[in-house]
Amino acid sequence: MFMPGLADDVRYVVRALTRRPGYATVAIVTIALALAGNAAIFSILKAVLLEPLPYREPERLVTIDVMSTRGFYISTSIPNYRDWRDRTTAFEAFAGASGWGFILTGRGQAEAVSAQAVIGDLFTVLGLEPERGRLFGAAETEPGAAPVVVLGERFWRARLGADPAIVGQTLALDGRPHVVTGVLRREAGYPTPDVNVYVPMGSIPGLPFDDRRSGFGTRAVARLAPGITLVRAQEELNRATRAVEEEEGRTIEHPEVRTLREFFVGDVDGMIWILGGAVGFVLLIATANVGNLTLARGEGRRREIAVRSSLGASRGAVLRTLLMESLVLALTGGVAGLALAFASVRFAVPLLPESVPLVLRERIGVDLGVAGFTLLLAGLTGLLAGLIPALRASRTELARELRDGGRGTGGTGRQRLRSGLVVAEVALALMLLIGAGLMLHSLRNLGTADKGFSEAGVLTAGVPLADDRYDSKERWRGFYEELVTRATAMPGVRTAALALLVPLTQRSWELGVLPDNVPYDQEQQQSVLYNVVSPGYFEAMGITMLDGELFTGAERDGTDPVAVIDETMAARFWPGERAVGRRITFEQTEGPSPAPVYRTVIGVVRNVRHYELRSPSRIQVYVPLSQTLRRWGMSLTMILKADVAPSSLVAALAREVDTMDPTIPLIRVRELEDYVTSDLSDSRALGAVLSLFGGVALAIAGVGIFGVVSFVVLQRAREIGIRMALGAAPRQVAAWVARFAGALAGAGVAAGLLGSAILSRVLRGFLYEVNPIDPGLYLAVTALLLSVAALAVYVPARRAMRVDPVTVLSSEQ
């Protein structure tokens, strides 16, 4: 019995809506826009924060990092790794991995391949299985391990043609043959499925396995034992660290355990939740707007409802029909919103920061879960927007409506509700616009911040040299120095230089340093960035010299070891004194001896923001390439300051490298401006999306003000006619309409300003040199919103001014 009645209600509702296409179109479009945004953001939130990671029992997976004294995570040493593994019981399985790179030769053109150097049971920890062959175990990763390799499935298919007989064959990585033991299953990998190869860390020659000061990018990954919490694991790690400190009589870095998801997501979760809140605001505004439209439509249908009631329809039947109308509108808007969401996701995903790993980014899309959530949200929107209007309309007084012909005023209660909904729309729209303004202000500040370098017209390209062919300082330096000479002669190149570290590329090399007025003590060293550069680096990067001189190329072995330091290091080590001519002492990084190295400071340069633009500059010391020995993992990046488009130099640079050594590929070829753009990606994403949602919210709020004021003018046309008949001028009528609309907008602005002052604290971590309560911004956004409100009131006010008293009063007879 219920379903036939329901079907009749749907048919009745569809016929009724087709007779009012304007109302239906506005309601459906409003809901569709709001739900499209919600579906897009929910698809991101679901993939990044809600779905389990693609590993076995991912909730038990953790990473263990070392937190530096400056508050950021750094890699750990193998001695630390072994202490954590052997002195704790909180972990069921333990492993470590470090991002690496090799040059693949002997399989066509030389190619750089991404790799993970593995120690311990990484595959067991993550629960990864082979597609072919087998995966090497912990015993095969210790020092002296045989050179074997596990292939990523994507690399196996794309580069090796999915060779079914690949297991047992060899790949030449950096010139050393590695036996293929297996291929990972499809879409498996760490940290992403795009990693090309996995090698035992112990098979890489020259790594300082027993040096507690050297981490070479290693991060510990572990699986918690059943029933063990993060707190318990952290306590055990702390005890193990204290025990080592007591045994060795010195302070070592303390570990910090995090979930693997936290490691993957980082600070992006905050941004996603903010975006989720923003689209929630848009949906609330849309719901309020549709609710207002439904209230207005209900007022105009009171006679229709009275007639239905007089013909025997119960209040429940009337209520059901009215609710069904809201649900039909909302679900239709939901389906349209899903269609828009497919395009919205394609728009939103590229805006995500590059820090969102590929393993999570690839899962983002509109799937059945997102579709179900969107339609559920549509149903709730329909109920919220239609329930109160339906209840009010179903309480129509039959006799009075039939007598008055449906021309009642609707009552002050209904008007207060409509006005309250508009106030809420204005307040929420103002909060979104202020949030967008704060982010755009922050983005502008970041874009104009003093980076310490100039990115314009700069091309960067990694030039990795294989350990087996460039194992002596003469060959290593010789290749790089000749490459600089060749690159300098290329047409369109103003300056060519080499560097170990380039700002914003997320590469780092750190060591401890002391000034010459402090006795050498490893425990007292300050960690600094260690950069190997060639002459011309500071010119190519636009780094300003403040004192002394820069490298000339005359620095050689046998001459006084020299260095250039940044202004922070100079001020911290020798406050109030001149740094040029002083000496710095740092730990040996250029040979097996732990003896300290002394260098004389010959110049001081401006600070450079190395890791990210919003973070303070790291202390950095620069040493000349011509006084640096070859060390494992030390590949340099070519930097070209161009007089032409930087991208036009790539082919010429590749030809020069190929002429010198055809086995060397270029890697990480990218303009420096791209790194700056990427660093701003999270602020740009928040600013763009909040601006979009703010604009939509502003438009919906404007429509809401227009609708309510228009309805009030229509419902109070008799009162307006009487006022004008008694002598009121049209301008007085317009002023009355403006005062009514101004009261609504003013109340919404007041509530929105208060809410913005509270919620702006949520954005504080994403802002750069911006006051979260910026009076100028708050005034500008308020003026914008009031301007839109004034435009929305214009047409209803003109309509009120043109009311003909004779016509209105005669129609009431």
Describe this structure in words.
This protein is of the alpha+beta class and 813 residues long. Among the domains are: 77-252, no CATH class; 465-664, no CATH class. It has a 6-stranded mixed beta barrel. Helix 8 packs parallel to helix 20 (681-715). The two termini are 45 Å apart.
Short description:
By secondary structure, the chain is α+β, with helices and mostly antiparallel strands. 49% of the residues lie in helices and 17% in strands. Among the domains are: 77-252, no CATH class; 465-664, no CATH class.
Q: Could you outline the blueprint of secondary structure elements for this entry?
A:
Elements: H1 2-18, H2 21-50, E1 61-67, E2 73-74, H3 78-86, E3 91-105, E4 111-120, H4 122-126, E5 130-133, E6 148-151, H5 153-160, E7 170-173, E8 176-184, E9 197-200, E10 218-224, H6 230-248, E11 255-259, H7 260-265, H8 268-300, H9 302-310, H10 315-348, H11 358-361, H12 368-394, H13 398-404, H14 411-448, E12 458-463, H15 473-488, E13 493-499, E14 510-515, E15 526-533, H16 537-541, E16 545-548, E17 562-566, H17 567-573, E18 583-586, E19 597-605, E20 620-624, E21 636-642, H18 650-660, E22 667-671, H19 672-679, H20 681-715, H21 717-725, H22 730-759, H23 775-801, H24 805-811
Parallel strand pairs: 4-9, 6-8, 15-20, 17-19
Antiparallel strand pairs: 1-2, 1-10, 1-11, 3-4, 3-7, 3-10, 5-8, 6-9, 7-8, 12-21, 12-22, 13-21, 14-15, 14-18, 16-19, 17-20, 18-19
Helix pairs in contact: 1-10, 2-8, 2-10, 2-12, 8-12, 8-14, 8-20, 9-13, 10-12, 14-20, 14-22, 14-23, 15-18, 20-23, 21-24, 22-23
